[in-house]
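Hi R.,

As promised on Friday, here is the backbone we talked about, encoded as structure tokens. Could you run it through your design pipeline when you get a chance and send me back a sequence?
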């Protein structure tokens, strides 16, 4: 019970991420054709127009892996106070969200807003370096 109370904020965040990515992944699986046709039309004018099926598959896989890591993260936080799965789940959630934001920014790029690519790349670098550093520190502690 102490582990649950000590990690209540992390567990709540992981529950939010679990519900978000599990629901999104299940929706992509159930309505694959509908999602694919909408996204093909949406990204038709971008450089990603021909890659939509591959990119949708990648996003689906990472969303489902993120959901599984959230489950493991919650379990290990409650039972053993181990944080590595929670950190991995949060890192994968950030990567997934950045991929989705990059996709939306690329839609704007096709209309001439070239600074969005640079901005997304900078954010990705900062977030990845923070999580990798944090994960390495936690690995040495555990």
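Update: got your reply. Pasting your designed sequence below so it's all in one thread:
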């Amino acid at each position: 019970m102490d582990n649950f109370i000590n990690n209540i904020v992390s567990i709540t965040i992981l529950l939010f991420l679990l519900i978000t990515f599990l629901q999104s992944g299940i929706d992509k699986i159930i309505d694959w054709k509908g999602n694919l046709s909408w996204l093909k039309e949406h990204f038709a004018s971008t450089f990603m127009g021909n890659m939509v099926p591959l990119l949708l598959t990648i996003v689906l896989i990472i969303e489902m892996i993120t959901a599984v890591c959230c489950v493991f993260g919650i379990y290990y936080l409650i039972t053993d106070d181990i944080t590595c799965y929670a950190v991995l789940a949060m890192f994968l959630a950030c990567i997934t969200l950045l991929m989705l934001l990059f996709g939306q920014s690329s839609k704007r790029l096709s209309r001439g807003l070239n600074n969005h690519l640079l901005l997304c790349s900078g954010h990705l670098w900062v977030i990845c370096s923070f999580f990798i550093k944090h994960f390495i520190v936690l690995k040495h502690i555990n």
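One thing I noticed while checking it: Residues 2-141 form one domain.

Thanks again,
M.
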